[in-house]
Amino acid sequence: MRHSANSTFISAAIFLAAPILTLASPVITNGNFEAVQIGAPFVTSDPTDIPGWTHGGIVGDGLLWAVGYADGGGSVTTAGSGNQFITMGGGYGTVGSADWSTTIIGLVAGNSYVLNFMTATELGTGEEPGGPQTMTVGFLSGSSTAAESYTSPDSPAAYWRNWVTQNYTFVATNTTAVVDFSVTNQEYDMGLDNVNVVALAAATPEPSSLLMAGVGLIWFARIAGRNWLARQ
């Protein structure tokens, strides 16, 4: 009887001493923009082809693009992930503002997360030479983290050839959050793809600290077990 009680208390102490490292992953719907596959001419301005996302502002030359598009200025040969991506901007020869927003679910208020995404500039050599393009990322709700701007360099050729990975760290204030990607007074269209969120794991305690904590809990459990048996 004594051995069984002590074993139970020791097992419970070891369980409590073990760090919990697994965090639930938040979810973004259609973060790679592959939910609706489009065919020739491999570009659409219909926002219903981008489920899970809301568009605002000027449409530009298109909203959803796919590998295979081509015209006299260049061709789409790659995406950040998969074969499709979205864009925002004024379009060819037009200055305009636009944004895309989506809801992140599965957050824990007070926890920190990293929003990962990929961007590409439409500009490159050929018909559309120019400079870098900039996108601003912030929250409409669910986080008070300040908005940040991200710049993509020129592509080696039109269109959207140079995809770069961007990272934005934020703190959730609710279990859901609406994130917004936007461009302001921009000519041509900037590409966005491969949007996902990962939780920042809590710092892992040093092994020596874990050992001391475990020994202390086991000692406490043994004393508690003896006291419990003495009362039987």
Main traits of this protein?
232 residues; alpha+beta; Jelly Rolls; 2 domains; 10-stranded antiparallel beta sheet; two-stranded antiparallel ribbon; 2 helices; 41% strand; globular
Please state roughly what percent of the residues sit in beta strands, choosing from under 5%, 5-15%, 15-25%, 25-35%, 35-45% or over 45%. 35-45%
Return the CATH class of the largest domain: Mainly Beta
Helix content: 10-25%
Oligomeric state as shown: single chain
Amino-to-carboxy terminus distance: 11 Å
Total count of helical runs of at least 4 residues: 2
- Please indicate the count of domains: 2
Order of helices and strands: HEEEEEEEEEEEEH
Query: What would the CATH topology of the largest domain be?
Result: Jelly Rolls
Number of strands: 12
Q: Which class do the helix and strand fractions yield?
A: alpha+beta
The biggest sheet, with number of strands, parallel, antiparallel or mixed sense and barrel status, is: 10 strands, antiparallel
Look at the structure and name the CATH superfamily of the largest domain.
Galactose-binding domain-like
The CATH architecture of the largest domain can be named as Sandwich
User: What is the molecular shape?
Assistant: globular
List the helices and strands and how they pair.
Elements lengths: L1 H16 L9 E2 L14 E2 L8 E5 L6 E3 L3 E2 L2 E2 L8 E22 L6 E10 L11 E9 L6 E5 L11 E8 L4 E24 L7 H24 L2
Antiparallel strand pairs: 1-7, 2-4, 3-7, 4-7, 5-6, 7-12, 8-11, 8-12, 9-10, 9-12
Helix pairs in contact: 1-2
